[in-house]
Amino acid sequence: MNEESRLAGAEAQTEQQPEKDYSKYFEHVYQPPNLKDAKKRGKESIQYHNDFTIEEKYKGLGRGRKFFIRTYGCQMNEHDTEVMAGILEALEYTATNDVNEADVVLLNTCAIRENAENKVFGEIGHLKHLKLEKPDVLIGVCGCMSQEESVVNKIMKSYQNVDMIFGTHNIHRLPAILEEAYMSKAMVVEVWSKEGDVIENLPKVRTGKIKAWVNIMYGCDKFCTYCIVPFTRGKERSRLPQEIISEVRDLARQGYQEITLLGQNVNAYGKDIEGLDYGLGDLMADIQKIDIPRVRFMTSHPWDFDDRLIEVIARGGNIMPHIHLPVQSGNNEVLKIMGRKYTRESYLQLVEDIRRALPDVALTTDIIVGYPNETEEQFLDTIDLYERVGFEHAYTYLYSPREGTPAANMQDNVPMREKKDRLQRLNKVVEHHTEHKLASYLGQEVLVLCEGPSKKNDAILAGYTDKSKLINFAGPLDAVGKIVRVRVTETKRYSMNGELIEIIEPVEVAN
Ligand code: SAH
Ligand code: SF4
Ligand code: F3S
Known about the structure:
Elements: H1 22-27, H2 35-39, E1 47-49, E2 66-71, H3 75-90, E3 94-95, E4 104-109, H4 114-133, E5 138-143, H5 149-158, E6 164-166, H6 174-183, E7 188-190, E8 197-199, E9 211-215, E10 217-218, H7 229-233, E11 237-238, H8 241-253, E12 258-262, H9 280-288, E13 294-298, H10 307-314, E14 322-324, H11 332-338, H12 344-357, E15 362-369, H13 376-389, E16 393-398, H14 416-439, E17 445-453, E18 460-465, E19 470-474, E20 483-491, E21 495-504
The structure holds S-adenosyl-L-homocysteine (SAH), iron/sulfur cluster (SF4) and FE3-S4 cluster.
S-adenosyl-L-homocysteine binds at residues 112-113, 226-227, 229, 264-265, 299, 301, 326, 328, 366, 368, 397, 399-400, 402.
């Protein structure tokens, strides 16, 4: 591990604390994560570590103590929360769903848009009362926001109720960070900008017993001009194929029914491993051979989506016929300024290639509206592309400038009310298509992974179809955790109702 790049908060406790100017106080002990440095991707190869253990001195640190983690943002963060829960339980902390009962509260944060960050600052503010009532509670901020210099400075200056800030590359350091926070009166800040490591054997407590996340790679090197993720998550680094395959086998043996392979940009899988001629298509082909009923993957960048991958997905088997393929914009100039490295035409060509191999595929996407200087015509190109592709659904976002990204420095002549108006117009198109697509399932039989009873009624079960559509149906609790066949009897705006036809009993796993 690279100790020089470690930002140690430890020395802080030996200094005398001044009255007001906290930023000055931290200046000489704390080097903030630097966005410019993050952009210079290290050439050094990735180091794989398999030696994580809970050191003797930390064992039992959590005995008699409870923890609460609030997770914001994407699946990557949800999965990191499972790892932090694993580490905390290995330290003998127990989980609680009630923040007021907790002795350690962690906010696993997201930096993708300004409103995501504002939510977190709001929550840190709320936690001030908890700290007043229970001065011994430890409050930690981790996840993507903690990799941002401005956020770390703001917390140090204005949120003295925070005890720990640690970055996305420091999760495995949680035992040491906690111990330091117990010993120290000052805020413990540990954010590494170093990102060349993959740590394999971290403990995990998965939130569900039916579906599981499997990281296949970390980080992102695409540097889309609006996006903070390459800075907060570091450079692209793939896990070794054998590690992923053995994790999937293990999940299958434990009875998991569905896995989602995770990465910011899964199509780039394997490209960073020197001498390895093995990509996402190859990995999926190997996972296809494993006895696990459902495999999904996200997120796909259209740039790296190759023919091998299309061929493997088209073979079907346990790979679900749903591809989330963010397009962001339907206009070439905007795509160019976004740094997406594909054109409207090449995107449409890719969709055609995918559909030729897999006619029944469900495609969903992400779109950003109101990019700096986006014209009405450029916006209409996005609407036009949406209709042409006929996406089943989309996540739509108002562009949010992120400090340190190239787009944040662009002049922008589009008034906010215009941007909001475009978002509303796009959302109408999206809603129309989503409803229309769902309506087309009426009367059909669909395969559903039954995830559990609805919150209000035990006899009403819910799950997702192979194409990720939510469906509710009456059935016995025995169906939970199994693939069931359901006939669609009613379709609504975002979900469907159906009647159970049969429960498909799982076969013996031979992995
Ligand atoms: N790695 C994925 C996306 C991760 S972020 C990919 O490249 O497809 C999820 C979505 O958030 C993006 O697809 C984009 O639509 C949106 N997004 C990212 N940065 C944004 C910003 N600065 N403002 C608004 N939306 C943003
Ligand atoms: Fe962000 Fe682009 Fe990377 Fe996706 S591919 S995480 S949008 S930089
Ligand atoms: Fe947010 Fe970080 Fe994910 S910025 S979207 S939590 S990678």
